[in-house]
Design goal:
The complex is a heterodimer of chains A (about 500) and B (about 450).
Chain A (H helix, E strand, L loop, with lengths): L1 H11 L13 E3 L6 H10 L4 H15 L23 E3 L11 H10 L5 H11 L10 E7 L2 E5 L2 H6 L3 E4 H7 L1 H7 L10 H9 L4 E5 L8 E7 L10 E6 L4 E9 L6 E4 L2 E6 L4 E9 L11 E12 L4 E8 L4 E4 L2 E4 L5 E10 L4 E4 L2 E4 L5 E11 L3 E10 L7 E11 L4 E10 L5 E10 L2 H9 L4 H12 L1 H4 L4 H15 L5
Parallel strand pairs in A: 3-7, 6-8, 7-9, 8-11, 9-12, 10-13, 11-13, 12-14, 13-15, 13-16, 14-17, 15-18, 16-19, 17-20, 18-21, 19-21, 20-22, 21-23, 22-24
Antiparallel strand pairs in A: 1-2, 3-4, 5-6
Chain B lengths: L9 H8 L6 H17 L15 H5 L3 E2 L6 H10 L7 E6 L2 E2 L13 E5 H7 L1 H7 L10 H8 L4 E6 L9 E7 L6 E3 L2 E6 L4 E10 L5 E11 L4 E9 L5 E10 L4 E8 L4 E10 L5 E10 L4 E10 L5 E10 L4 E10 L7 E10 L5 E10 L5 E9 L3 H9 L4 H17 L5 H15 L10 H8 L1
Parallel strand pairs in B: 1-7, 2-6, 5-8, 6-9, 7-10, 8-10, 9-11, 10-12, 11-13, 12-14, 13-15, 14-16, 15-17, 16-18, 17-19, 18-20, 19-21
Antiparallel strand pairs in B: 2-3, 4-5
Helix pairs in contact in B: 2-7, 8-9, 9-10
The chains are: A alpha/beta (about 500), B alpha/beta (about 450).
Chain lengths: ~500, ~450
Amino acid sequence: MPTSTETIEQLAGQEYKWGWNVDIEADEAPPGLSEEIICFISHKKKEPQWMLDWRLKAYQHWLTMKEPHWAKIQHAPIDYQATKYYSAPKPKLKSLDEVDPELLKVYEKLGVPLHEREALLGVESSGNGENAPRPDVAVDAVFDSVSVTTTFQKKLAELGIIFCGFSEAVQKHPELVKKYLGTVVPYSDNYFATLNSAVFTDGSFAYIPKGVRCPMELSTYFRINAKNTGQFERTLIIADEGASVSYLEGCTAPQRDENQLHAAVVELIALPGATIKYSTVQNWFPGDPKTGKGGIYNFVTKRGKAFENSKITWTQVETGSAITWKYPSCILQGDNSVGEFYSVALTNHYQQADTGTKMIHIGKNTRSTIVSKGISAGFGQNTYRGLVKVLPKAENARNYTQCDSLLLGDKCGAHTSPYIEVRNKTGRVEHEASTSKIGEDQLFYCKTRGIALEDAINMIVSGFCKEVFKELPMEFAVEAQKLLGVSLEGSVG
Amino acid sequence: MTTVLEPTNSFVTSFEKVDGHRAAWVNELRQRGMTAFCEAGFPTAKMEQWRDTNVSAIAQTHFVPAPTATGKAVLQLAKQYSFGDTAAAELVFINGHFDPHLSTTSALAKGIKVLSLEKAFETENVLLEKHLGKHARIEQHPFAALNTGFVHEGALVHIAKGAITEKPIHLLFLTIPGTEAAVSQPRVLVVAEENSESSIVETYAGTDGSVYYTNAVTEIIAERSARIDHNKLQQEGNMAYHTALMQVVLSERAAFVSHSTSIGSKLTRNDLAVFMGGEFAEATLNGLVLAKDEQHIDNHTFLQHEKANCPSHELYKHVLADKSSAVFNGKIYVQKDAQKTDAKQTTKSLLLTNEATMNSQPALEIYADDVKCTHGSTIGPVDPNAVFYLISRGLSVAQARHLMTYAFAADITRRIKVAPVRVRIEDFMTAQHGLPQDLRITDQARHDVAMQ
């Protein structure tokens, strides 16, 4: 199909729409990693001694570790000494009015309703006619290393919900941070998580008290702005007994030639009866479409611990980054806990993704569902890697896994490497995987109905991903669908 | 030679004692094998391909090359596993050594040669030099490298152009260990020329109660349009270790069917690699694992689709009782040029107890776009609803469970064309589960009905 190949190439040739770079005077640490730098970060954030000790413990451990190479990804060696580990916008912001207008522009371009009034206006104006009013979204924007502002904080505080930057949480709620930090992802967990534990700069913190249903979607927007800075954010979400929360994470990064390291850690704690829904749309800069140069190395550790009768849902749409290395996991510790993982991963041009999940069944009657959709185009390499483990005490554990891959073009690759370990006879584990190309008969049919090839492909791909998109909160689902269309442009055949 | 092995390792010391071979190429091959083994050492759990199988017991045991054995016990064992008249030829190896008295090759059709490797070095040197050790990837399989280091005894099966054997060719490897822990390292080479058709059975068996080790390597070459039906039946003794690599190379339109059944041994690791190097080649890999006690059975399969239009089908089933454990790792690799590949892989496992462990790793690695590749993996208990139904028809709980287990395995056994292999597996299952005779699908007539 020469025509479709051409279309693919056209589509693939699209530029990264979010690739601009605003000059904001940054307060930076010199490049390099050492105990001094860690002390510098800790000092900058006015952290208590226990926090600094934890960081240094992690750093000492990190020095003994080796960079992992088991994932199906290839990259030039990372120079950890060339990265800047701290970069904060300057001057320090105290209120919204002081926010650098340049910074606000960045978010405006992204369409994030950062400004509280703007957000409210947005809600009011969109409630016309057939459209239902948009639900409120509380945004915690993390710009490079610092949480800039958090909207709706007051409204949430009325319900006892804490939603703030991580550094603020360390200052204001040290007892909660101390109690839960590192309980799901210990400082010694893996190379990148340990690095993060040593140098993390900011991130989001959320605590939903007992029995409270969070009335709005909590949202974080991450941007990597300054050159050569890695973004090491740390997110901790605690849903106390019977609480429920939906959390959205969105990421974009401006265009850069050097590969930028992003090693984040997300910890979720769902106490008995709680529900946490964590959704991600990741659209970091994927590198130069023609040469594969630059882009973000996204090495992320995300894990949730689910206690009795609780539920954790991970939904991710991964369309960006030069390399994605990410396995949002669930430790199903309590009886009757539920873990879910829905993923769409798209690799186009020279992108590589090695992503999947781990479901560790420990408690009785634990259930997990995995739906993974991989799309490879251009020279993209897409790997699903997952582990489903049923431990001896997990009576009646149930898992269903489905991973489908779609290949667009003959230069890309799609791989599936699931690991299934069952140590209890009552465990039922099912795994299904398929790999195929887009159906020519489907395309032909669409074309006979007058639908352009490109639209037809978009339609089929979005149908392929529907199962995952329907799990996303509404605002995100729309964005994700658009993003997929944009990322896919020029890549079908 | 950089080595990770102690110079006192029993394999290293025995290698030094191996007599030089008359043919220089054999000595070179052995040296290459031993060097590769010494460089790699014994696999550890840190290696991805060995993460779930611990071979430290093999590494730590002092094995000596198995001496020959004779006497009543040998005859009895040989009789027990012999195919008798149903085989076209039967080569019997006792402790890895060819036994001409127990073997028979008189009923072979024209164009088919089945001979011991020792003999073949004399009469078929050209063919051996062309193929032996040229296909097994010793760099990736330390145990295959080890076997190559000791290449000496085993079998050569040569099916000439257009030759057909309906009856199976049986290679029977028996071990009756003496007082010391012994190792035998049989090597099999099968060369099937154009348009030939053959059925080959490898049986590995031994006596219970003593430690021994079998480390086998089989290389199978199927030329254009050759058809091979291969059975491997592993019924080693309950304290035995068994490692094996089978490397199959298929040319255009060749068809290869493998049935690998693992019943015995304390620890087994089978590697089965199929290189599909010609268009329209077809591979069918079926496997059955019946494990109990503390057995550990590991099957690694690797289907390498190198050319377009090749279908492959794979079905592996595991029945795990007691504290047994099993590993299935199946990779389907589709090269860029292997368009129109149709690969289907299925693995199903039945856990009969809470102590049993199953590790399943089905994997797809695909670089071509116009393909249809699927894999499915299920692990679960005997279906309680089906058991309930059977109880309501008057069966006891135990009977119902046995029947369900039997039926689960019969899905594989009924596909086995060689009757003596099928009967032996079913004998084993009947003995283990006490199934009524009328439920067996052993005779050919019933088999054919089942196949329809």
